[in-house]
């Protein structure tokens, strides 16, 4: 028997503490009615419960939102009901005024009432509001699909035969294919290439790369590019103590190849393009040198190739953006341009490959984009219109009213484009398309473009129809020019044809050719294409009818005022006017009926939505309650048990404290 440590008393004391803590926990749960009062009570349960609570509150608010939406709809529908009543009265008056038993005084009296009714329709449209938001004035109507400058739509992605795209003239005098005023387009810039996993910066300067088309060959460009990249590699190795091998850049068989000097990294990367024309006009596919304030040089389409696949990963050391060089086995090499401070020029070694794709239509961020693919010479306005049929209203934009007028596949680009030319010819510039200056054989010819008439191309025709139209205008200008100059100075007629999606103009003297492209405004005026842009309106209203993002119902209410309904100009002062008014009012009644029907359908949908939301919230609340709420009867039982155990442990502690006193009997 020991007396320094009373082990039974210590054990009893510990158990008493446990029982008292359990009793206090039970009392806390009974006091709040919650099984979880702090995270320690049930960590996982608390997390699940809070997520459910967020959903429940969201569903409850969504239900209230739907109810508010119904109130808005009922407000608008009530206003349109009155508009309906007014239109019915107007139709009754129009029918009355159509009867010739009425004299002028009678019809004037009828017209006075009609005028008041029209004003009331406008007043209802202008003043009907819900929470200060106007409802039937068109401000929450469907946004009309923007009209399209047809030349721009019909020509997206069609240009295939360009060698140089300039904002100014393309001069081919004296048989020299020299692109004037281009050197200023190449600004000093810093480029980046990834070699053996290392990002190498190299410089491209105006003085280092001559940009005159007639002087720039594939070999000279390859030599310059190789020297600049390898200088960047040397600087990288010096800075980081690495041993990245030099690259070799070669030009052969119409391609530029960049090859790493590392062992095994032998997948030469190339971009190919057919070389056409004379005077060493080397067209480097995908080489795009541009500046915001100068001209630009563009190559034609080509394709990327790679020789072999051994150790390609040695080159693939960086994240690659979309649209860059792609190896056939999926690996990628990135060459990106980063302009130096103060400069806006860039060089992108990239290209696209023509695939004969058909026209496509897509909607991204509310913008309708129509791309004609690469079937350049056969696409027509009819192809465009077929793309938008059946789109209907999407996100409040009514694409079913999309309109394309005019004709044809027409290449669009700012400025004049030349394609592998010889001889002496200059294409027209960027002036207003009504009158342009076309220089042929060094002679400036003022061409007045004729308006599209009854004998000119019509909707659905292809580019060939327009080629004749342009040829006639140019040759008419040449004839006028020849009448004013000596015989030795006269200019031969030109022929206009379609090649690779462009209008190709050929001189009658020395067969010089020029591929002419117009910008949007020029094409519209030249071909008589009307810009059908519609006034931008609202895109409807959205009702948030769910607890999460994107769970919405969209509602549009069109303009229900007199002008939009077509009754603003109703005149019953004559029998003929009264008879015509009957049809106009019938159409207005039909428009209001259609809008009211739409409102009723959305209201019914919202009522079903509310019922579903309430059901979801109820069941989710039940699930959350099972996690969070306490079972009162069971917890009372637990508290009673803990109280009894606590009292028992106190009694046993008293007994344990008395036990060591038995030692005194041994001393007696």
Structure commentary:
This protein starts with 6 loop residues before the first helix and ends with a helix. The strands form eleven sheets. A four-stranded antiparallel beta sheet has the order 7-8-9-11. A three-stranded mixed beta sheet has the order 3-19-18, with no helix packed on it. It has 668 residues and is α+β, with helices and mostly antiparallel strands. The chain is flat, with a radius of gyration of 41 Å. The chain folds into four domains: 65 residues; 178 residues, f41 fragment of flagellin, N-terminal domain (Up-down Bundle); 195 residues, no CATH class; 172 residues, no CATH class. α1 packs antiparallel against α11 and α2 runs antiparallel to α10. Keywords: Bacterial flagellum, Coiled coil, Secreted. InterPro entries: Flagellin (IPR001492), Flagellin_C (IPR046358), Flagellin_C_sub2 (IPR042187), Flagellin_N (IPR001029). This is Flagellin.
């Amino acid at each position: 028997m020991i007396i320094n440590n009373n082990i039974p008393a210590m054990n009893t004391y510990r158990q008493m503490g446990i029982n008292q803590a359990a009793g206090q926990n039970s009392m806390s749960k009974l006091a709040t009615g919650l099984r979880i009062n702090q995270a320690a009570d049930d960590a996982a349960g608390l997390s699940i419960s809070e997520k459910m609570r967020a959903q429940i509150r969201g569903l409850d608010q969504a239900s209230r939102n739907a109810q508010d939406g119904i109130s808005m709809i009922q407000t608008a529908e009530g206003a349109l009901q009155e508009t309906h009543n007014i239109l019915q009265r107007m139709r009754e008056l129009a029918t009355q005024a159509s009867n010739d038993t009425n004299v002028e005084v009678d019809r004037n009296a009828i017209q006075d009432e009609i005028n008041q009714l029209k004003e009331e329709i406008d007043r209802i449209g202008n003043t009907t509001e819900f929470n200060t938001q106007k409802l039937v004035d068109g401000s929450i109507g469907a946004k009309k699909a923007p009209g399209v400058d047809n030349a721009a739509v019909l020509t997206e992605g069609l240009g295939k035969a360009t060698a140089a795209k300039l904002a100014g003239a393309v001069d081919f005098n004296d048989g020299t294919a020299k692109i004037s005023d281009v050197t200023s387009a190449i600004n000093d810039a810093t480029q980046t290439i990834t070699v053996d996993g290392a990002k190498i910066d190299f410089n491209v300067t105006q003085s280092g790369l001559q940009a005159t088309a007639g002087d720039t060959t594939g070999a000279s460009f390859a030599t310059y590019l190789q020297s600049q990249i390898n200088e960047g590699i040397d600087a990288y190795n010096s800075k980081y103590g690495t041993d990245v091998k030099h690259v070799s850049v070669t030009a052969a068989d119409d391609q530029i190849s960049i090859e790493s000097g590392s062992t095994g990294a032998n997948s030469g990367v190339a971009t190919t393009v057919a070389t056409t024309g004379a005077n060493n006009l080397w067209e480097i596919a995908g080489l795009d040198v541009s500046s915001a304030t100068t001209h630009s040089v563009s190559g034609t389409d080509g394709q990327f190739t790679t020789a072999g696949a051994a150790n390609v990963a040695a080159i693939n050391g960086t994240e690659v953006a979309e649209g860059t060089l792609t190896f056939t086995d999926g690996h990628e090499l990135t060459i990106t341009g980063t302009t130096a401070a103060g400069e806006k020029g860039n060089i992108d070694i990239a290209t696209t490959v023509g695939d004969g794709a058909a026209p496509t239509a897509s909607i991204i961020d509310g913008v309708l984009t129509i791309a004609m693919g690469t079937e350049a010479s056969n696409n027509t306005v009819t192809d465009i219109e077929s793309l938008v049929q059946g789109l209907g209203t999407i996100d409040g934009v009514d694409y079913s009213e999309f309109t394309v007028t005019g004709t044809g596949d027409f290449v669009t680009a700012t400025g004049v484009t030349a394609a592998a030319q010889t001889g002496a010819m200059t294409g027209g510039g960027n002036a207003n398309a009504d009158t342009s200056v076309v220089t042929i054989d060094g002679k400036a010819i003022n061409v007045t473009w004729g308006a599209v008439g009854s004998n000119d191309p019509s909707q659905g025709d292809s580019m060939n129809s327009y080629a004749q139209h342009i040829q006639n205008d140019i040759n008419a200008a040449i004839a006028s020019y020849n009448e004013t100059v000596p015989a030795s100075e006269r200019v031969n007629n030109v022929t206009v044809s379609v090649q690779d999606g462009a209008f190709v103009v050929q001189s009658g003297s020395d067969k010089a050719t020029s591929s002419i492209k117009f910008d949007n405004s020029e094409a519209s005026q030249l071909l008589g294409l009307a810009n059908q842009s519609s006034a931008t309106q609202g895109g409807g209203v959205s009702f948030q009818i769910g607890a999460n993002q994107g769970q919405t119902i969209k509602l549009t209410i069109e303009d229900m005022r007199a002008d939009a309904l077509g009754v603003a100009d109703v005149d019953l002062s004559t029998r003929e006017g009264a008879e015509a008014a009957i049809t106009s009012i019938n159409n207005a009644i039909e428009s209001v009926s259609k809008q009211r029907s739409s409102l009723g359908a959305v209201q019914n949908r919202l009522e079903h939505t509310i019922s579903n939301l309430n059901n979801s919230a109820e069941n989710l609340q039940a699930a959350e309650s099972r996690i969070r709420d306490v079972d009162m009867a069971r917890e009372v039982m637990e508290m009673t048990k803990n109280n009894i155990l606590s009292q028992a442990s106190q009694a046993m502690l008293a007994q344990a404290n008395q036990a060591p006193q038995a030692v005194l009997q041994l001393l007696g």
